[in-house]
Structure formats: structure tokens, C-alpha cells
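Fold this sequence, please.
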Amino acid sequence: MNQILFSKFNQEIEKQENRKKRNLLIVFKYQFAISILVIIACVGYYSYNLYSTRQKENLSKQLLSNFNINLLYSDTSGYATSAVEVEESNNSSFIIGLIEIKKLKIIYPILSDVSDDLLKIATCRFYGPLPNEVGNLCIAAHNYNDYRFFSRINQLEIGDSINIYDALGNVLEYHVTDKYIISATDSNCTNQDTNGEKQITLLTCNNMTGYRLVVKASAVS
């Protein structure tokens, strides 16, 4: 009798253990399926962001190409004859020049205005005069932690050269004079008191700390 009861007791325990195993297996399957969905969503989100930024990079290159073509045919196509006329002819954002940093192997158009959308496709005039005029032209661009826009201006050193082209294609060389970090609320680098000199200030964000990297340069006399 005891053996029968003991056998039934063991069978019940075995059934309970089997139910636990089945429940654990079901939970594992759900967790696995959810993990796969999360991974797919993350990969999709990353791929979309990568595709979107690549498209913006291509748009920047297209703007650069169009700017060069406009310069090539400006004598016969009725284009403005000065940077001031170019700026007064259109109230929307447009290309006012180019920035070229040979050390970093980059060249980008400079847009006349700055916004979140514009910063995704090119460098932007954040503050100051038009390219190569007296004052402090402040140029902002994104830092994508790769090779695009101002992601590598931290590699610039004192004395490195930066070329700025105006709307007519005239180029002026600038040499780096300073490089430092500021807080997001510090605007002293945009000061326009240059004692009659032509200066540029490059600004980009530091994605890790929330601070800003500033590179200042003065025109070579």
C-alpha cells in the first residue's frame, strides 16, 4: 500500500516538474521571440539612420557640385556679381561659400543660415559676416563621430590651414590660432571684435560630454 502511495506521489511530483519545464520553455520562447524583435528593430533603426545620414551627405556633395557649376557659368547666366547681392537676392538658406580643410580631406558648402535640418546636410553660418569679410565668421557643423562634417576638427593643430571660398569662388587661407572646449551656453567665441581682422570660428558638439569644441583661425596676411 505504501509503495503504491509512494509511486503515485512520485508521479505527481514528476508531472509538476514537467509542467514547470513546459512553462519555462514557453517563457524562454517568448523571451527569445521578443529579443529577436528588439534586435530587428534596433538594426532597422540603425540602418535607417545610416541611410538617412548618407543621403544628407550625398545632398551636401550635390550642393557642392551645383555651387561649382554655378561659378563656372556665372559670367553668362546672370548670377549676382557680389556676395552681398547674392545674399540680398534670396531670403531662404543658400550657399554663401565653401570650407576646405586639406589636412582632414574635407570640403563642404557653407549655408547662409543654421537650423537642425540644415546642419544635417552641410556646414552653416552660425554667426558673423559673409565669408572672407572683416569680422568673425562662425561656422557650425555636426559631429557624427566618423569622417563627416566637423567630426575630426579635434585633429587640427595650431598653424594648420583652412581655406574659405566666398560666393564668387575667391579663396582666402586661414591658420589655426586656438582650440578649446566650451559649455553649450558659452557664446564668447562668437565675439565680433577682431580689430579689423578676418577670422573664422569652427564649432561642433562633443557627443560624449555635451560641450562644444571650438577651433579659431585668422586670415593669412
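The radius of gyration is 29 Å. Strands lie at 95-101, 106-111, 123-127, 135-140, 161-165, 171-182, 198-205, 212-219.
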